[in-house]
UniProtKB/TrEMBL annotation:
Species of the source: Streptomyces xinghaiensis
Keyword Oxidoreductase: no
Lineage of origin: Bacteria, Bacillati, Actinomycetota, Actinomycetes, Kitasatosporales
The protein, known as: Extracellular solute-binding protein
Keyword Signal: yes
Keywords associated with the record: Signal
Signal sequence, start to end: 1-27
Length: 436
């Protein structure tokens, strides 16, 4: 993060509040909503977070905040498997949170449409140090209708092409730098009796990662941006058909083996194939390293390698572009009674102590100047690779199933799974997507 932001924690809450009161975002929403709204009452800030092992970072943030604020934050940890359902049910009721964790994009689009969230754009414009504290593409990935509704609050989660060093060494092979390399490696590893790419095809979301990267490399990030903006005709872009044809080519060539449709991720199926030298590569989110470290520590220590998804021939997309989950965000309920405190709380995600806790938790922060911090990461080389890849990316496309509203995301995932399973031809796939 920037040096001037690292001093943000030293500013008094009173001084910050004085500037916030004048902010147009608060003038628009008001600093006190209807009695009992937003979950805040009598100087309390109700903060909801997705309940998992990473909440210890937010626990510490709440403790620091409460030491310096008359308004006390209360952290509610909602079980992960029910988080989104409980949030949708609570919003608009007296039990709604004042500040809450989300994925940006489609995960909050319905709330934005109903004017339920604070538009943070005026605050970002007024406080360039706040926006500048984070990598631009990360902040932008959380936008809805070209406005900011979230402050990044967890680590980055790009999709990475992992490879098995042992298998590559045995085959005297190198990680792919081009589409031609990928196809050649498919043939190489098939001859070795190794599945070229592990794929958990029992679920659609691991297959989605392939479609996301191929479309990005073929047509650029702009194609899906049009789709996300509501242009259904963008599914008819030639890059979508080319992507579907490449998926069929990979499947027909044996890139994922014969039984990928029955392999899962949640029970560690694909990851185990990869770690046990039965698969050469695995396209997966950055959490794959932590997963291997927990379940296959020896492989994580010396057997796993990582690289970027390669460029494609005649592709319009920048090969530095990244897809995945840029991060998670704090958003503010427009009816929160303690809006000044809510805004000050979400800003703590830019503070030095918060970033230090993220690194200590094994995360790679999304702040713009985190390089020095990464030396303390438990896997510094891996962390630095992720950080530099994301920082250099002209665009970071949010996972489509998070970027699109659920009524579009679910049938989209079904269509992708049918494409991989041969139940839809590339042309039929395009028509099905245009009909979403």
């Amino acid at each position: 993060m920037r040096n001037n932001l690292s001093r943000r924690g030293g500013r008094t809450i009173a001084a910050v509040t004085a500037t916030i009161v004048a902010s147009s975002v608060l003038a628009a929403c008001g600093s006190s909503g209807p009695e009992g709204s937003g979950g805040g009452d009598g100087g309390t800030l109700n903060v909801w977070v997705y309940g998992d092992a990473s909440t210890k970072v937010q626990d510490e943030a709440v403790k620091r905040f409460n030491k310096n604020s008359d308004v006390k934050a209360k952290l509610t940890k909602v079980p992960g498997d029910s988080y989104q359902d409980k949030l949708r049910t609570a919003m608009g009721t007296p039990n709604a949170p004042d500040v809450f964790f989300n994925w940006g994009g489609g995960s909050i689009a319905n709330f934005v449409e109903k004017d339920m969230l604070v538009d943070l754009t005026p605050e970002f414009d007024k406080d360039p140090d706040l926006k500048g504290a984070f990598i631009d593409t990360i902040v932008d990935a959380g936008k809805v209708n070209d406005k900011y509704y979230g402050v990044p609050m967890r680590g980055m989660q790009p999709v990475i092409l992992f490879y098995n060093k042992n298998v590559f060494e045995k085959a005297d092979a190198e990680p792919p730098q081009s589409w031609e390399d990928m196809l050649a490696l498919v043939d190489t590893f098939k001859e070795e009796g190794v599945t070229p790419f592990a794929l958990a095809g029992a679920d659609a979301w691991p297959e989605l990662m392939w479609v996301e990267y191929l479309l990005d490399r073929n047509g650029g990030a702009e194609v899906f941006q049009r789709i996300q903006d509501g242009d259904s005709e963008a599914w008819g872009d030639p890059a979508v058909l080319k992507t579907a044809e490449q998926i069929k080519e990979l499947v027909d060539r044996g890139a994922f083996g014969k039984n990928f449709a029955s392999v899962n991720y949640t029970e560690d199926g694909a990851s185990t194939l990869f770690a046990k030298d039965r698969a050469a590569m695995h396209l997966m989110g950055s959490w794959e390293y932590a997963n291997q470290k927990a379940n296959q520590p020896k492989f994580a220590e010396d057997g796993i390698g990582w690289t970027s998804f390669p460029a494609l021939p005649d592709g319009k997309g920048d090969p530095k572009n990244v897809v995945g989950n840029p991060t998670n965000y704090w958003s503010i309920n427009a009816k929160a009674k303690e809006q000044e405190a809510a805004l000050e709380f979400v800003k703590t995600a830019a503070e030095d102590a918060y970033v230090k806790d993220l690194v200590g938790n094994g995360d790679v922060p999304t702040t713009s100047d985190a390089e020095e911090r990464l030396k303390a990461h438990d896997a510094p080389q891996y962390a630095e690779f992720q950080y530099e890849m994301v920082k250099a990316a002209p665009a970071f496309t949010l996972s489509w199933d998070q970027a699109l509203p659920s009524q579009q995301a679910e049938p989209m995932l079904t269509n992708i799974q049918k494409l991989f399973n041969g139940q839809l031809s590339p042309k039929d796939f395009v028509e099905a997507m245009k009909g979403l």
